[in-house]
Amino acid sequence: MKQALSVSTIIVLLTLFTLPAIAHSSGEMIIGYQVVLRIRSAAGGLSIQERVDKVTTRLNRRLGGKPFDPALITVRRYCGEYAVMHKNCLIVIADSKTAAYNKTSSEKLAKEWAANLKRVIPLAKAKTEGP
């Protein structure tokens, strides 16, 4: 009886310790081999991966062969959250759930993502355009 109880206890403990890992699944956006943002929650009727795909599409539209000025990446309020914008075009919303997973605010998360994009995009473009 004691042995069965301890096995059950172990199963419960393993389940409790693995649930946060499952709950914290994320979709990563990688540019030039660097993770620039991690989306950790579904939002707006989109799954995590759908959100990442949508951000990728938005960035590709902004970057597609046109000169890109990273200084035009800003953080603004958008639909009650903070968002990373390029000029007046939405790139990604730093939703409060993802911010909470990162133990930060939506505004700070958006600023972090914007800084990553400003730093990484010019490096990635330089590598693809060559000397």
Characterize the structure shown:
23% of the residues are buried. The protein starts with a helix and ends with a helix. The model is unreliable at 1-24 (pLDDT under 50). 52% of the residues lie in helices and 22% in strands. It contains four helices and five strands; from the N terminus they run αββαβββαα. The strands form two sheets. The protein has a three-stranded antiparallel β-sheet with strand order 3-4-5. The protein has a two-stranded antiparallel sheet with strand order 1-2. A hairpin with a 2-residue loop joins strand 4 and strand 5. It is α+β, with helices and mostly antiparallel strands and 131 residues long.
Summarize the structure.
With 131 residues, the chain is of the alpha+beta class. Helix content is 52%, strand content 22%.
**In whole angstroms, how far apart are the ends?**
72 Å
Q: How many E-type strands?
A: 5
Q: Per the principal axes of the C-alpha atoms, what is the gross shape?
A: globular
- Helices and strands, in order, run as HEEHEEEHH
| Class derived from helix and strand content | alpha+beta
Oligomer: single chain
Major sheet: 3 strands, antiparallel
Helix content: 40-55%
**On the 0-100 scale, what is the average pLDDT?**
78
Total number of helical segments?
Answer: 4
